[in-house]
Fold this sequence. Notes:
Blueprint: H1 4-13, E1 16-19, H2 26-29, E2 41-42, E3 64-67, H3 72-75
Antiparallel strand pairs: 1-2, 1-3
Amino acid sequence: xxxxxxxxxxxxxxxxxxxxxxxxxxxxxxxxxxxxxxxxxxxxxxxxxxxxxxxxxxxxxxxxxxxxxxxxxxxxxxxxxxxxxxxxxxxxxxxxxx
Length: 98
């Protein structure tokens, strides 16, 4: 049976790219945290004293993010806040990436 400690350990192993704004990286551009190729902060590389992402400050809302393996800068997609959303492939324009 998994314990609470097991769940915390598993959650800590998940690495995300996160940002505080709904889109863009303006807040992340000026902070001391480790940045991903997409410009967002690497969740495992937050600076403790960062006023936006650091754990020494009161928590703030994260409004955008994606798993490392789906980073748009690495997999060749546009950032998710600019991607078109389609209900199914019949609505997707030909030749375009979503």
